[in-house]
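Appendix C: a fully annotated inverse folding record. The material below is reproduced so that readers can follow the format used throughout the book. The structure is listed first as tokens, followed by the designed sequence.
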């Protein structure tokens, strides 16, 4: 009797260590999104659901996705709404969410070392990052582009950036991409509003980031006219970041995201925040159970 129980525990441990357990734990219909009473006893979901609050990393300076508007105490945006959907999937109400500002510079570390329980922060799923954290999703696909002052007529795309000053946010995919592929002079800052300030002062010639992030900055700064130039230079699938060893949570979030794609909640978030720049959505992402 004792021996077989030991064997059962060992098998569960082995599955957890190899990462198989996550999928097995949540793929069955027995685990119901939004109903903690169905969460397996030893799962990350059950452990989180026991708590009084959940800590979620989002951006605080990205109009449309995660933005702390003047005087507000909670951020708003598409990412924020996706985060609320996922908090609800674990049984948390909105007022049980502790919002934590996670800039690109330190986002990976915040997820990896558990300073947030998960993050929804325009964070691109990349192979390098997948070695350090897990990603659910994607829940959105963006692409990098360049932004310049509207008065600029020299820069029509990345090939024109040779010897020019380019604002990048440290830790972002745009910073890496330009460092590897172009000989622009990189000016690294910690947030996107800094790039707008530098463009406004004429201290940089362009800024690089995801097209939707840049579009949000253009909308949020009507007093300074800026424009996107060139075509998209990358594909940026946004994922929900979780600790690498929390594979069960990653699969559970994939299930919750898929349900939100199917039941219209994801589309409602799009219509609320993104329709002004992207129009009615024409695609629904598919979660990728790597
Ligand atoms: N999606 C890009 C990334 O994950 C840019 C996002 C950002 O810097 O906030 O690096």
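Designed amino acids, in order:
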């Amino acid at each position: 009797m004792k021996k077989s129980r030991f064997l059962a525990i060992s098998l569960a441990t082995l599955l957890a260590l190899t990462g198989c357990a996550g999928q097995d734990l949540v793929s069955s219909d027995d685990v119901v999104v939004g109903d903690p009473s169905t969460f397996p006893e030893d799962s990350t979901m059950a452990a989180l659901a026991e708590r009084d609050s959940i800590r979620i990393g989002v951006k605080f300076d990205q109009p449309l996705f995660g933005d702390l508007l003047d005087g507000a105490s909670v951020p708003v945006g598409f990412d924020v709404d996706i985060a609320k959907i996922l908090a609800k999937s674990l049984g948390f109400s909105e007022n049980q969410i502790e919002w934590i500002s996670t800039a690109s510079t330190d986002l990976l570390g915040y997820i990896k070392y558990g300073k947030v329980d998960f993050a929804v922060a325009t964070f691109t799923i990349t192979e390098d990052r997948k070695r350090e954290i897990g990603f659910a999703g994607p829940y959105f696909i963006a692409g990098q582009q360049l932004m310049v002052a509207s008065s600029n007529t020299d820069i029509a795309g990345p090939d024109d950036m040779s010897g020019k000053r380019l604002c990048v946010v440290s830790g972002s995919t745009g910073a890496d991409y330009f460092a590897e592929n172009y000989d622009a002079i990189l000016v690294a800052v910690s947030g996107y509003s800094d790039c707008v300030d530098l463009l406004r002062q004429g201290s940089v010639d362009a800024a690089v980031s995801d097209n939707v992030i840049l579009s949000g900055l253009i909308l949020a700064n009507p007093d300074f006219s800026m424009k996107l130039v060139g075509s998209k230079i990358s594909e940026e699938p946004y994922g929900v970041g979780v600790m690498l060893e929390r594979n069960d949570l990653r699969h559970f979030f994939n299930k919750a995201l898929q349900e939100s794609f199917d039941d219209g909640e994801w589309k409602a978030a799009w219509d609320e925040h993104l329709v002004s720049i992207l129009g009615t959505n024409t695609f629904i992402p598919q979660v990728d159970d790597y």
